Amino acid sequence: MLRPLTADDLDPFVDLHADPEVTRFVPAYTREQARQRLAEIEQQWDERGHGVCAVELKETGAFLGRCGLNHWEVFDEVEAGWTFRRSAWGQGYATEAARACLEWGFAALDVPYFTAMIDPANTASAKVAARLGFTPGRRDRFLGHDVIVHVLHRPGTRNG
């Protein structure tokens, strides 16, 4: 299940970003930083009509992680991103959630492509991106880290 992340997700969001294996490739957050990030996510949903979602197990409502479409002003691009608890790794949740976000995004948003900014050492996320049809594009710096910007063009376009 996907639903917009809100301030009510503070505890599971902090827990997700406290695992050192998870934070090898995404930032760790203090409670205050997480509160600020969740406020930014809610604001993006309000202003842009899209954002980052909580991913919950349908049967139990357990918080598995986050996935969604995030607009980054610095690039003027919309990134598809995913981060999951270690217990959810290797079960297809990232691919399933990201595919749903991308399908919805191409139907709802007037964008020619989505990006996925992935640390070169994050082979698991690169595999998810490849399964979704992304291709490696440019190298860039994002939030102080080197990344490979993977690109997925709108289906039916010259590049997609």
From TrEMBL:
InterPro entries found in the cross-reference section: Acyl_CoA_acyltransferase, GNAT_dom, N-acetyltransferase
- Keyword terms: Transferase
Is Transcription regulation set as a keyword in this record?
A: no
Q: In its keyword annotation, does this UniProt entry include Transferase?
A: yes
Q: What's the short name of a Pfam family annotated to this entry?
A: Acetyltransf_3
List membrane-spanning regions. none
An example molecular function term from Gene Ontology annotations: acyltransferase activity, transferring groups other than amino-acyl groups
Give the top-rank taxon of the lineage listed in the UniProt record for this protein: Bacteria
**What's the protein name?**
N-acetyltransferase
- Please name the source species: Streptomyces albus
